[in-house]
Amino acid sequence: MTTGPSHPPRGAARRSRPLRVADAIKDWVVERGLQPGDRLPGEAELIERFGMSKGTIREAMRLLQAQGLVETKTGPGGGSFVGAVSRERAGALLANYFYFRDVTIADIYQVRIALEPELAASLAGNLTEAQLAELEAIMQDYAHAAADAEEERRQHVASLRFHARLSDFGSNALLGFCVSFMAQILTDLTVYKRLYATPNHALWKRGRSHQSDLIAALRQGDAERARAVMKSHMEMARSLMDAQEAEVMKRFIAE
Amino acid sequence: MTTGPSHPPRGAARRSRPLRVADAIKDWVVERGLQPGDRLPGEAELIERFGMSKGTIREAMRLLQAQGLVETKTGPGGGSFVGAVSRERAGALLANYFYFRDVTIADIYQVRIALEPELAASLAGNLTEAQLAELEAIMQDYAHAAADAEEERRQHVASLRFHARLSDFGSNALLGFCVSFMAQILTDLTVYKRLYATPNHALWKRGRSHQSDLIAALRQGDAERARAVMKSHMEMARSLMDAQEAEVMKRFIAE
DNA sequence: TAAGATTTGTTCGTATGTATC
DNA sequence: GGATACATACGAACAAATCTT
Predict the structure, then answer these.
(1) In chain A, what residues touch B62 (CB-CB under 8 Å)?
(2) Mapped to the 3 state alphabet, what secondary structure does B161-189 carry?
(3) Which of A85, A254, B199, B216 lies in disulfide reach of B152, CB 3.0 to 4.6 Å?
(4) Residue A48: which domain range?
(5) Which chain B residues are within 8 Å of A174, Cβ to Cβ?
(6) Domain match, B244 and B162 both
């Protein structure tokens, strides 16, 4: 909620009424310390309080809705409510920023290699047995080598879910978001762009042994070993991805 | 632009018309490969094409506007245009995600320590003399020790601008965004929450010498030295911040 | 199940503001 | 300054969703 995208009346540009109303509502939420789920005034009241038409108020609400800050429901007991921005929504909004910029697989892995080992280290000794069990359960989704491209893809998505869950378990929301965002991008690439379309037995086997070692280190509370294992895991994945990327490009050009 | 926050007609929930129109426009932009600055159909045409009222179309445009995907101008030659999401806007939208989550100074530095050294290393030998000169110019803003709390704050913001500029110079947009987002959060904290309100001579002196060393390493193309210097810089800053944070908390409680 | 109440969702017609020529 | 082309804003009415009884 901080200061909105262009919150203060900067410079000279006159801001439209919906924009000003949206900012006023944001400020109102911050001042009152409202929490997710808390009610916001209904349309009728806002119309009166701001002295503006229904359409203008509704446009303001759409502005806030797009940012994930409010949710609205119809019917009795309905209305607008303060909304907590979900991780998925935050990731989708951020993905828009990168749409017109070219981000390579190498870029993604440069960040992953810097962050994932740090995350792993900070998690060592801090996971419950239930969380460790959940990670092991995810690994069951790729307990055997993939038979075809379709299964390979499905397994890779599951493997990325392993990392996404890991990012949820930490206490650092900032670090967790960055890590899970990288996993999200790779998942989208896998699903929509058919990345990892070629079954790769080496990736499957070594990746699994890395993840097993990682879980063991996390369970033992060995932070430095967790860091080292994750680092190896990321570096191996990166080198395989570089080859895959070239192949994806070739196919794209060929068609 | 990828797949919107809740793009596909999921499960059973009926999506409102503005939401559906916004998704359709997004898809249209992606399919046609439109670029920032390209025209979108005007209100009148959208009304006709979607068979919906003006109000609904306008609400859809507000949804896209809030995400930074379109910009609208009034007057002749005006209309809606595809917009590139700016870094600032992306950062502000992401900051909303963290508003209801507690992020500590320690969390920020955990990420900075993992990323900034990597950024520094990848920049070594890849900066133009003009870019190096710009960094040196920023350092002029804190060439002398701060006399009071106000100047200390101003200098700290300038120092964060140093890191933000650094993040712009790299070729990895993902890494650059993460680094500059951390700097943005710290800047906001400095300005709004009066972080770093106490002049700290040690921070000033050692910080400056670190940054000088860093520029030298970048100019020489010594990646590993750049990485090491940045790592020291971050670790020093973190230890000072931990002390400051405690103090900020105490003051907050005392009042 | 059905009716009624409440609140958002949507439309249409009209009028105003703004930037370009 | 006036004409033009576009977004912006208003108001009244009606539709749809959903909770309560």
Answers:
(1) 18, 59-60, 62-63, 66
(2) HHHHHHHHHCCCHHHHHHHHHHHHHHHHH
(3) B199
(4) 12-82
(5) 98, 103, 107-108, 110-111, 182
(6) yes
